[in-house]
Amino acid sequence: MKQGDLVTRKSYGGDVVFKIHEFRQQQAILRGVELRLLADAPIRDLEMAPQIDPLEALGAMRPKWLEAMRRSGAGAAPQAQSDGWQSTEPAESSKPRPAYFELPGRVLHLDGDPNYLRKCMLLYNELRVPADGYYVAEANMADALYRLLPQLQPDIVVITGHDGLLKQRWRTYGDITQLTSYKNSHNFVNAVRVARQFEKNRDVLTIVAGACQSHFEALMQAGANYASSPARVLIHALDPLCIAAKVAFTPIKDTVNIVDVIGLTHSGLEGLGGIESRGSYRRGVPRIEYAIRK
């Protein structure tokens, strides 16, 4: 058994497949393959799983919400004749309506897992969501945002990676209200605070934050628009992307339907929650014919 192997935990009935991140004495630090979970286990508790390339496993996943997302907005422009885009010309006028161009919200995605990040970037591209992605260890995300936000000025920030309740501390003290009971929630909270200091208006900068079992209340209080995990459940690797893509293609005059968009995710309202927030999608005229060459 070595670093990078895929394993399950005997004591949990092999319910989750992990990748061995590193060894610490007789303990293994584990990262979920499909779930954003960080865990540790005694080496003797581990059992080998089929050794499939984690990126291939993620690549084989076609999220159930992907087609629904296309139909409802992301990946397909909202209807051109919605409010504000009706022609003021008489119905019999032969004057052609101007062709418009699209500006979906731009995403800055920070991820603590490189495999998840690569899959997310492929899906952003498939859904036509402009996105910049960076693999950053959870402990370094606040510093990374301090540098990246002024440079990229995104409309949406995704702050995610791996998290989980510290089993020993939680069983000893039974207190899930303390940030010290979580593996990475304090790092996500620090990153959200930096992002919110950069832009205080939650309708100008939408923040999606958290991972498996993250401290939902602390993330929301720090300034997130959407966060995990209200019921401290495990969330799917692609759930934060689902929220970001929907925000990117919701018109700025509309608020995102919280229940509908979270209902599309794998974990639902137990895994993700949020507040009423505006979308980031804009249209303009006339259509841009030439891209600027750098």
UniProtKB/TrEMBL annotation:
InterPro entries in the cross-refs: Peptidase_U57
Polar residues bias locations: 79-91
Superkingdom to which the source organism belongs: Bacteria
Record Pfam families: Peptidase_U57
Positions of region (Disordered): 72-98
Protein name: Sporulation peptidase YabG
Gene that specifies this protein: yabG
